[in-house]
Amino acid sequence: MMKIPIRPVKPSTVAFTREARRTPGYSLFDWVHGYVYARWPYLYIGIGTGEHLLGRILGVPVRWLGQLFPLRRLGDPGPVTFADTYHGKVVPLEAATQLVTVEEEIRLENLEHIIPYTHARDIVLKNPDHIAVLECPCRAARPNPCQPLDVCLIVGEPFASFVIEHHPGRSRWITSAEATEILRAENERGHVHHAFFKDAMLDRFYAICNCCACCCGAMQAQRNGTPMLASSGYVASADADLCAGCGACADSCPFGALSRPTDDGLATVDTDACMGCGVCVSRCTQGALSLVRAPSKGEPLEIRQLIRNA
């Protein structure tokens, strides 16, 4: 009789399951969803962005069913949208760097003043020095992706070990210093740092993605009217005395929030469209641009200040 080999459950799957049991309100459906998302992210994202054949086949009926049977959760006043369950917070380079250099375990819950979504707005960092870099599923799904691919930072447990154990060919362990260098290099390429939260990922922060406007599924969704991204809490501001009118900021803005200088030679910032990512600031050779606080855009995700406040 032929014996069917039984693969042992990976330690990271056990750890993910144990953590799921400790998470209030986390259901079996959430666990299955989270496991599928983390186990097959390239298929999941490929379908979500429409790049995979299944996404093109199933996209219309899935959207139709979602409208016919809107998802609801116990205690919610209305339907739960996709953006409520899976979203990102724009974080400038300094704030992103803070997230990969945390030296203590932390639990910050119900950060609605920072993460303006109904679900997935906690920051719970266990073993914050456990950082894995993963090949970006959004970039990998595209026919001509931006390079390099290994720019998604998975922070803390049980997420980092899960990625390493299930995607050994597409991920590796890195140090905080190496994560900082990836952030710096991506900033120089004009890419945006997003802290990502997902209900299926234990209702909390799990990764920093370094996103380009041409490949990122979240930025694509944002442009198409699904508000998946929250502002950093800052907006760009131009100094008329320093602006040289070169237009480099307008060319580099991933959110289309800057207009090329007009006859007066000054770049114009559309504060409604600006997400406060800081890409334009790093592109301005004259030092004419800076990020300024915009209370109407929400509070910044600055982990060191949050730790002090807690």
Q: List the total number of helices.
A: 13
Tell me the structural class.
alpha+beta
Number of domains: 2
Biggest β-sheet strands, sense, barrel: 7 strands, mixed
Say what oligomer this is.
Answer: single chain
Termini separation (Å)?
A: 61 Å
Give the overall shape, derived from the CA principal axes: globular
Question: In order across it, which strands form the biggest sheet?
Answer: 6-4-5-8-7-1-9
Kindly state the percentage of residues in helix: 25-40%
Order of helices and strands: HHHHHEHEEEHEHEHEEHEEHEEHEH
Number of strands: 13
Radius of gyration, CA atoms, in whole angstroms:
20 Å
The parts where pLDDT drops under 50 for at least 5 residues are none
Commentary on this structure:
- With about 300 residues, this protein is an alpha+beta fold.
- It folds into 2 domains: about 20-230 and about 300-310, no CATH class; about 235-295, Alpha-Beta Plaits, CATH 3.30.70.
- Helices cover about 35% and strands about 20% of the residues.
- It is built from 13 helices and 13 strands.
- The chain has helices at about 10-20, 30-40, 40-50, 55-70, 80-85, 95-100, 135-140, 160-165, 175-190, 215-225, 250, 280-285, 305-310, and strands at about 85-90, 105-110, 125, 130-135, 150-155, 170-175, 190-200, 205-210, 230, 235-240, 260, 270, 290-295.
- The strands form 4 sheets. A 7-stranded mixed sheet has the order 6-4-5-8-7-1-9, sandwiched between helices. Strands 2-3 form a two-stranded antiparallel sheet.
- Helix 3 packs across helix 4 (about 55-70).
- The chain is globular, with a radius of gyration of 20 Å.
- The mean pLDDT is about 90.
